[in-house]
Amino acid sequence: MASQRPKKILIVEDEQEIAQLIKHYLEKEGYHPCIADTGIEAQKLVSSEHPDLVILDLMLPQMDGLEVCKNLRRKPETALLPIIMLTAKNDEADTVVGLELGADDYMTKPFSPKTLVARVKALLRRVNRVADHQPASFAYGPLHMDLARHEVTAKGQEVPLTAKEFGLLKHLLCHPGRVLTREVLLNEVWGYDYYGTTRTVDVHVRRLKLKVPLLNDSIVSVKTLGYKLLDQPRR
Description:
By secondary structure, the chain is an alpha/beta fold. The chain has 8 helices and 12 strands. Helix 3 runs parallel beside helix 4 (92-101). The longest helix is centred in the middle third of the chain and has 16 residues, at 113-128. The radius of gyration is 18 Å and the shape is globular. The termini are far apart. 34% of the residues are buried.
């Protein structure tokens, strides 16, 4: 039986020491990393190398990481490409914008390379996981989710969702009426253990509500815990 090809990871980082450090740790884990030091080069490498995941710094020459993220999410062939953003600690506003544009996760500098690799592993594992014993579709009032076609429609109109928005909605639909903590959602949707305070879940819930107004009153925030999808949508 042929061995599975190493996963390709594109590192988009203009600080060479950081890029080489990430590359070293990824290679130790059997990944095949490549490096782009500008946003424009990153887009070219995505087209030519077809990476399985992108580690994307926000502060880049020529084209910043937010613009790269936006462009990748705009194209059907890269709309679901997993993206982990790297940001400075004082770039919280840009971090939120990046998550809203469709990044799957973020880490702030300085960061632990081992933790970053753990996030990479978890995100790829989640993307590649095949769900067993699940229905082919969900219906929630006028909202319909087709798992096989990876489509969501509301009142007959298709709603474009990122991979994590889709996964978050699916998990909520699987457990109507149940309070889902942020820890549970991070583990089940993002595929890794809870690492402490994060706005990832909150930003994705807010983005989901913007895209599907039906969910505005149906996804309820449970103070200090997480979120709950009501058994039936509110009219």
